[in-house]
Amino acid sequence: RLLGLADKTLIVDEIHAYDTYTTSLLQSLLTGHARQGGSAILLSATLPLNLRRKLVSAWQQGRNSQKDNTAEDGFPLAALVSDTGVEETLIATEPERYRELPVRFIHSAEQAQEAVVEAARQGHCVCWIRNTVDDAITAFQAIQQELEESERAIVFHARFTMADRQRIEAQVLQYFGKESGAEQRCGRVLIATQVVEQSLDV
Predict the structure, then answer these.
(1) In this structure, is the dihedral angle defined by the CA atoms of residues 29, 65, 76 and 109, taken in order, positive or negative?
(2) What is the tens place of the pLDDT at every residue in 157-199?
(3) DSSP string covering 5-25
(4) Which of 44, 159, 180, 187 could anchor a disulfide with 16, C-beta 3.0 to 4.6 Å?
(5) Could you tell me the strand order of the sheet in which 189-192 lies?
(6) Is the CA virtual torsion 86, 89, 90, 91 positive or negative?
(7) Is residue 129 within a helix (H) or strand (E), and if so which, with residue range?
(8) CA neighbor of 35 nearest in space, from 63, 75, 72, 70
(9) pLDDT tens figures, 44-89
């Protein structure tokens, strides 16, 4: 397989979504691919700096190249890794896409739940992403009890059967997708795990 990749450009997408095992495989692949003269393009929307450094180091190990590493934590960012070092370029947002959004930190699930319910009651749509399936289910059950129309809350996670998951995906896209409008979204709450970020365009 490495022979088949020789002198080719390896393109890997969604690298932030890999688990520790798959990331270690990717590091080994990058080292071997760099060693035999290939090139690689790695794509990610949300790559942490520490993981970016590991991948850059794996590449440099294969090239026996200068051991500079990535340091810029801005976003969006393009990093070019070559035998002479690392060149990082911050990419400006297109003027028509630029906007400022307020961020308010909430430090407990109870506070988050209150904020979600209040926003829904005001007619906003809300997506609350939880780290685990159990947390998502617990939050969903609690939110359902507080909403006047419990069916306006939807839960979406990876533990559903494929048939149920497809049905829920279609429902989520109907209410929150690009084709939906204010009427469909009004007062709706989506409680999900990271599957909503990896699978759906909402």
Answers:
(1) positive
(2) 989 999 999 999 999 999 998 889 999 999 999 999 988 876 6
(3) HTTPEEEE--GGG--HHHHHH
(4) 44
(5) 126-129, 189-192, 153-156
(6) negative
(7) strand 126-129
(8) 63
(9) 988 888 999 999 999 999 999 877 788 888 888 899 999 988 999 9
